[in-house]
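Extended Data, panel c. Modelled sequence:
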Amino acid sequence: MRDAQLLRYARHIQLAEIDIDGQTAFMAAHVLIIGAGGLGSPAAMYLAASGVGQLTLVDDDVVELSNLQRQIMHSSAALGTNKAASGARTLNQLNPEVTVNSVAQRADDTLLKQLVSNADVVLDCTDNFATRHLINRACVRAKKPLVSGAAIRFEGQISVYDARNTSAPCYACLFPEQADFVNEPCASLGVFAPLVGVIGAMQASEALKIIGAFGQPLVGKLLTFDARNMVWQTYALSQLPDCSVCGKAV
C-alpha cells in the first residue's frame, strides 16, 4: 500500500477489526450496485470513499429534478443524463483510485447473470419487487451475498441474504415471488430525504463487513427503521423449506 493510500485510509487502518488486511481486502473487492438513486447514492459514495477497488453501477433511468431532493450522487448539472453515468462521474471525483463501471441498462435476468457472477457483494438499491426478485435469484444461483435495502415515506428496512450459508433465508423467503405485493412508488407516496441516506449508508456498512470479514452482518435478520419516531426494530428471519428460490426442495 502506497504512502498516499495509508494516509487516505488511515482512520480505517486504525481500527483493529480492519487494519491493513481489511483495507487491502476493500481495495481488491468488486461491489455491484443495482440502482443509482436514493439508496444507491449514499451506498456507492461511502464504498468509493472507503476504497472499494471496483464498483459497478446499474441504472437505466435519467436524473430528474424531483430526484435531487434525496439522490445525493447527482447534481443539477446532471439533469437529463443517465444515473449510472452521472454517478460514475461523482465517484471518480470522490476517489480517483476506484474503478467505476456504469451500465445504462435495466437489470434483467441476462444482465444479472453476467454481472452478479463477477461481483463479491451485490447491493439491491432498486424500488420494485420484480427487479428485487430477479436480483435475489441471480445471487442465490451464483452464491453471492446480497445486501437489500428499501425505503418509502418515513419507513426503511435492510437485511443481508447470503446464499453461501445454505440454511440462511433469501429475499423470497420474506417476500415470496408468488405473493401479490403492490409496489409503492415514492413518486406517489413520498419519501423522507435523510431516510434513504440512513439505509443506503447501512448497506455500504454491511457490504464492507462482508468484504472485510468482521462484525456480524444482518443475515437472518430484518432491521426496520421508523424515522418519524426514531424507532429501530429487529425481526428474526428463517428459511422457508418450500421457498421457490432457495428452499431445500428446490
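Residues 193-212 form the longest helix (20 residues). This feature is highlighted in the accompanying rendering.
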